[in-house]
Write the C-alpha cells for this entry.
Amino acid sequence: MARLIKQQQVVGSDDWQIIEDDAAVVDYAVISLTRWQAERSALAAHAEAGKLGLFLNSDETADLIGDDASAFALIAIDFPKFTDGRGYTAARLLRERHGYQGELRAMGDVLIDQLFAMQRCGFDSFSLRDDQDTEEALKAFSTFTRCYQTDVREPRPLFRRRA
Amino acid sequence: MYVYDEYDQQLLNERVAQFSGQVARYLDGKIPEEDFLPLRLQNGIYVQRYAPMLRVAVPYGALNATQMRALARVAREYDKGYAHFSTRQNVQFNWPALEECPQILADLADVQMHAVQTSGNCIRNTTTDEYAGVIAEEITDPRPYCEIIRQWSTFHPEFAFLPRKFKIAVNAVPGADRAAIQIHDIGVNIVRNEAGELGYRILVGGGLGRTPVIGTEIRAFLPEEDLLTYLDAVIRVYNQFGRRDNKYKARIKILTKALGIDRMRELVEAEWERIRDGEGKLTRAELDRVKKHFSEPAYKDLQDEPAELTSARSENPAFARWLQRNVRAHKKSGYAVVTLTLKQKGTPPGDITAEQMDQVADLAEQYSLGELRSTHQQNLVLPDVEQAQLFALWQAAKANGLATPTLGLLTDMICCPGGDFCALANAKSIPVAEAIQVRFDDLDYLHDLGEIDLNISGCMNACGHHHVGNIGVLGVDKKGEEFYQISLGGSSAGNNTDEAALGKILGPSFARERMADVIQTILDFYVDKRIAGESFLEAYRRLGHAAFKEAVYGPAD
C-alpha cells in the first residue's frame, strides 16, 4: 500500500493487508464480505481486538454489511475505475446510516481529482494509484471552502448555514 | 434573476482555479489522456472533429445582457466569431484552444457564468420553460426551483460519477409540457394538490438516444419542501443499481424498465423515508430566499393593445406576421413576450454571431429590462417588452437578422451541430436543415402549413430530438455514406395536453440530395388531405402512418 494518505498526511504504508478468502486471518487482515458472512463468529476475536478490516467491491452496497460495519477497524472500498462512482454512496451510507466510525479507505483507481469529493463522503484514508503525486494530492483536500450540499463532514447544507 | 452571493461566487472561483490546475497538469503530462477526459467533460469540454468544443451552461435558459456580451467576447476573442445555442438551453463554442479554456472560464466567472457539469456522467444543467415567470398559464415561476436544483447538483459529492449523464427538467404549466420533461431522466412537474398546496409530480426514466422512452410517473405528489431529498433518493438508487457494463444501457430509463416502475418506486420511497426529514430537507426560508431573486420587476401600469401597436400592425403586414408568430401574451397587460429566432436561411439553426449577440444584449437592455432567455428550440426570448415598443424592437431585430417570423413553423427546426462539428455524428445535419430552409422559404406557404416541429439529429444520440419531431430526421451511416431516416408523428407536447409521443420510422432512408423532395412529398400529402384547421400532427394521427408511407414510397407490394 504505497502512497497512502491518512487524515490528510502522507504515511506511505501501514499494516493492513488484503488477504485471500482461503488464507489464514492474521492481525490487520482485510477480508471479503463473503468471508465475513460465512465466518462471522470465528472472526469475532480479531474484530474485537480492532485488527480486522473489510474489503467492499464496488458492486457491494453498504446495506449488505449494515450495522455490522462497526465490527471493523477499517473498511476499504474499491474503485476499480475512478469513473465508477458507487463507492461514494457506499461510504456515505456507512457513515451516515450505519454509524461506522472506523477508518474508511478508498482503494484502487484513486486519483487526485477525486479526493475532495471522497473526503466529503466520509473517506479518511486514500490508497492512491501508483502514479499519483502525493504533494498535489494533499492540496486537493482544500479545493473548495464551502459546498452547497449536506455531506459527512458538514451535515448542514449551505442553505441552513447561509448568513 | 438569481444573483450570486459571496458563497456562490467563491465556489465558482475555486472551480476555475481547480480546473486551471487540472489543465496545467494535463499539459504538463502529469494527467494521462484517459484520466483527463472525464475531468474536462465535467467542465463542458469535448474534443471534436477539428477543435475542442466548450459548452457553457445557461442555467434554465436565464441570461442577462452583461452575460450575453461576455459570451460575445468569448466568441470574438477565443473563437471564430460565433456561438451555437443547444437544445438544452446551453451555448457552445466550437473553436477554442484547450490552453485558453481556463482563461475563458475565468472571464465567464466574472459574470457568474460557468461550464460546470455541462457534460460528463453527472447531473447536467436543469432546463425549464423559456417563458417562466412571464406567462399567466403557469402555476408558479419554475425558476426558483431550478436554481435550488442547480445549487444542490453543483459538485454534489456523491453523484459526480453516475453510470451515465443525468438530466432534469421542470415544467410549471398545467396541461402542457413546456420543457420536454417527459424525455428527461427526471421530469419535475410543478402542481397543486387538492388542498391547494404547491408540490411536484415526478416522472422518471424518460430520454431519447438509442432507446427512446417517455418518462413514467414515480410520485403523483411530492410536497414543496421535499424536492431535494427526493432527488437524492432517486439518484442514490440509480448510482447504486444503474448498469455500468454497457454505456448504451446505463441511463436511468434502462434501470427503470429493468426493475419495473413499481419496484423502482419501492426502492426510491424506502431510501427517501430515511432521509426525507434530515438536514437536506429544504427550508421555507431557503425557498423564500431564492424566490425573492425572481420577484416581479417594477412593471408599469399599461393597457393592452396601445394605439402605436394597432396602427403599426395595420400598416405593416410583415410586422403583423411577426407579431402573430413570434410574439406571445404576457401576464401583465401592456407587455409582450418576444422570441428572437435563430433560424435565418443560410445559418445553421441555433447559431449566432458575436455581433448579433451584442445586438441582442442591446435589445434586452433597451426593450426588456436587461434580461433574456435561451430556448430548447434554439431561439432567444426577450421576456418583458412593452407592447408600445414592439414595432421599434421589430425593426431593430429585423435589421440584425433576428426576426424571421417562423416561430413554431416548419423552418423553426431543432438541429444538432451534426457531422460538420461533432465527432459522434454519423451524418451531417446542418446541410439538411439548409436544404429545407432553401426549399421552403415562402412565408405564405409556411404560415399556411401551420405549426410543425421538424427535428434533425446527426446520430442516434438524438441531440436534435428527432424522436419527438412531428417530422424527425436521423442521420445514419450506411457503409461510409450518409443517409437520412425519416420518422413521423413524434411530439414533445409543448403546447397541448397530449402525452409526448415518439415518432415512427417511415421506411428506408434517403440520400441527402433527396431530403428536400421527400419532405415536400410529405407536406404535399398533408396539404392535400387535411381538413380545415387540422395541424400536421392531427392529420397524421387521423390519416395514419400507412397513408403517409404510401405517399412517400408508393403502394406496398
